[in-house]
Design a protein that fits this description.
About 0% of the residues lie in helices and about 35% in strands. A hairpin with a 2-residue loop joins strand 4 and strand 5.
Length: about 70
């Protein structure tokens, strides 16, 4: 994972990072109470669970996760 900028750099609660993940990996089931997350899928396929729904994402797809929502990727 490469951090492009972090909340500590004056963006308040926003961090931008690039992650290259091997198949069958990911962040796992979690939630963030203090910040939102946005995911851009650049290549490959990504199964993403949000609010109990399974999203099958691919290149060009974007998903926004408001703070305090559970995700399972």
């Amino acid at each position: 994972m490469t951090f492009k900028t972090t909340a500590a750099e004056g963006w308040n609660a926003y961090t931008v990072c690039e992650a290259i993940e091997p198949p069958d990996s990911g962040a796992g089931y979690h939630r963030h109470a203090t910040y939102d997350e946005t995911f851009f899928i650049c290549e490959g396929h990504y199964d993403f669970r949000l609010d109990g729904k399974l999203l099958k994402l691919g290149p060009g797809d974007v998903v926004f996760v408001p703070r305090a929502h559970r995700t399972d990727s």
